[in-house]
Structure formats: C-alpha cells, structure tokens
Amino acid sequence: MKEFTIGKNDAGQRLDRWLAKTLPLLPAPLAQKYIRLKRVKVNGKGSKRDVRLAAGDILQLYINDEFFDKPTPENAFLSLYQPKLNILFENEHILLLDKRPGMVVHPDESERVNTLLTHLQAYLYQKKEWSPYQENSFAPALCNRIDRNTGGIVIAAKTAEGLRVMNQKIRDRELEKYYLCVVHGRPERPQGKLEHYLLKDEAKKQVFVRRRSEPGARTAVTLYRTLATRGDLSLVECQLITGRTHQIRAQFAAAGHPLLGDGKYGSERENRKYGRHGQALYSYKLAFRFTTDAGPLAELNGRVWQVDKVDFVEEYFPAFSLPAPETAGL
C-alpha cells in the first residue's frame, strides 16, 4: 500500500484523472476496476471515479508496486490491459503468433508500446507465467523477425531452453518458411529458383541485388511457384532457403516483378493503380522438419502451421483458396 496526500495543485481533479497522471503505467480499465474494488481509498473509504479531490485528502492505493515505476521501454507492457495476439499454437516453451501487417515486432524509435514483443510480455505477465520483477527472470523473446508491413507467423520463446533449441533449428535450417506474395506481371517461368547475392546498406535500410559475389554480399536463395494470375498480377508462393533481409522483395524486383505495394523496391506509380500501401507479402506457413534432437520441442517435428486467411489474397484473388497445410513442400 502507498499513501498520498493531495496538495493544492492537485485539488479539484477527478480521482480517475489523478490516478492516470500519477500512475501512467496503470491502464485506465484496470484503474477503474481498482476503484470499483475499493483498492483506491479516499480518507479511508472507497470512492467513485469522478469524485473531486480536495487539498488534504489522503489517498491509500492498494496497487502492485510495479505500477508506481516511471515508464520505460522495459516496462511498457504494463500499460497494455488487453494484449492482442493471434495465437496459432502455444505450449510450455514457445508460441506461434500470426502478426498482422502494420505492427512492428520490437520497440524502436517510432513505437514503444504497440509492438508484438510488448503484447507478448503483457500476455505472459497477466497469465502469471513471466515477471521481470522475479530474480533471474528470463525475458520472453522473438526467434524471428518480420517487417512492419509484412504479416505472418512469428515464433516466440517463453523459456530459455525453448529459445536455445529454436534458435539452433532456425540456424541449421530445420524449418521450412513459406510466404505468399502478389507481384506485378507474370514470371516467365511459373516455377523456379531465384539465386543472388544481397548487399545490405545499413544507412538506407535497403539491400542491393548482385549477380556475382563481392565483399559484404551474402547469398540469397528463394524457391517460388506461381499459384494464380489475374490481370497484371500474379499470386506467388515462396519458400525461403536463406533468410536475408528483404530477400523476397529485392529478388523479385530484380527479376522484373516487384511486389505489389512495395514502396522501397517497387513502383509507386504501379502501386497507386491498385491503391495498395505496404508490400503484399505474408509468412503464411511454417513446417518443422527436425533432423537433429529437439529436446523439449520434439512434439513440433513434422507438424505444419498455416494462417487462416491472408487479406490481400482475398482482395486480389477472391476465387483462390489457400492450399491445405499438409501440402508443404515445393
């Protein structure tokens, strides 16, 4: 319990607005709940949220200590009262999450609170499966990243053991990652392989495609097949053999078929024709093909997860149905 005495500068404020100013980490719906439960007392008694405070009033707050902290990127999860996650699978060690386009995966200079990692932390904290206030607490982590405007399956680790094993599986390419994308035009070969070298420019946050190896460039290999065509657009499934930054976007642009909506590698003029903002790219299917011991993650071996729907498929290819998840493999 913490106690406060209202001074003349705070006199006249509503109780709920004083709480919001004093405890910025406390979500408004939770503050209202605590007031209803009389965990917020004014002069020793329960009160209503719209009561006006007077100088000299004594407030007693029976609220967890962490909500009295100053806001930082590390405790931003406390301000999320209802974390929003589309969970495809969860066990003791990992979750598979379907991230929607527009959400960043990690906090950055543009967004501190509404990120996939922050929603994950809030979800596990509220389930009492994780707390940063416990000694030697493991911090939930994301095992793979997806660009802000790309949607799809992200793997999250709930335990240190789960993170260690999953990172090894990703590093050793014991997972199959499948993407759907819409590209301009029709690939000359409906099925094939894109092989290039990608050179990353950190300052521009962009990669450049090279036909031959050069210092700093890394190999990039993508298998693809055309699933449907409609007008000047093609729906393509891609399987990542390597996992480089912007790999699919840069490789298809270099092949003369930039992704619909891609403002970095594509054509703004072509994108405006379709009113599309943000690349039509979705990590829609994930298959676990373990070739080495998976320890606590062994139950995942041989299983395939697939999202229920992809918005741009429904918009641009309404007659197309997603293939069944059992058909993993190009």
What does this entry look like structurally?
The chain is 18% helix and 27% strand. The chain has 330 residues and is α+β, with helices and mostly antiparallel strands. The strands form 2 sheets. Strands 5, 6, 7, 8, 9, 10, 11, 12, 13, 14 and 15 form an 11-stranded mixed β-sheet that branches. Strands 1-4-2-3 form a 4-stranded antiparallel β-sheet. Strand 2 and strand 3 form a beta hairpin. The longest helix has 12 residues, at 160-171. It starts with a strand and ends in a 14-residue tail after the last helix.
Order of helices and strands: EHHEEEEEHEEHEEEEEHHEEH
- The gyration radius over C-alpha positions equals 25 Å
Please give the count of helices.
Answer: 7
Average pLDDT, all residues: 93
Q: Which structural class best describes the helix and strand composition? A: alpha+beta
User: Based on CA inertia axes, which overall geometry fits?
Assistant: elongated
Spans of at least 5 consecutive residues whose pLDDT stays below 50 are none
User: What's the number of extended β-strand segments?
Assistant: 15
* Percent of residues in β-strands: 25-35%
Largest sheet: 11 strands, mixed
Proportion of residues in helical segments? 10-25%
